[in-house]
Amino acid sequence: FEWPMLATAADMAESKKSFVFEGPTGTLKTALAFCIGRHEAEKMEPESFGEFGWTIRNEDLPLFVNVPEFMMRLRASNRWGSGVDEHSLIGECLSTPLLILDDLSAQGNVTDFVRQELYIIIDYRYRNRRRMIVTSNVTMQKLAAEFGDPLISRIRGMCEIHSFSGRDRRVLGGKKKPFGGEGSTPACLLSFTTSF
Fold it and tell me: What is the pTM of this model?
């Protein structure tokens, strides 16, 4: 990764602020959010020494949530016998010191149930001043139409909004790809994420 991206991520992480990164696909919003999370994770102090060495509790690490996947899992938790525990999904989002909600988009398929659960998460984090980073391919105005003004108002109230622009860095048409091509992942995107 280019040094300015890593330096920006470090500065943003150290600011202890919440952010919204909005803009077109492929403009490195997710990459910057990951780098901020990785910076936070690298600062963690191990709390105990166990069989496999020093450990950090999972709930103390930043949590990366792909919103479309999260919404799918929440909808599944609403079905009897699904094996998905809604309370665990929500609980992780409430307890983490830094929640990264990646790809919050107006896709037209948001149920009232999912809208309510996202509201619970964002309202809790707003009221308790818990940090959050939101990435989106659409503007806050378009998100308000999909998710409602109360939810988006809370995001606006707690987050510094940064608008990204430019061409899709994933498909630069013959130019060097930012991550080194297919199957390559930058180092700042590795090692701290928690998946559901």
Answer: 0.80
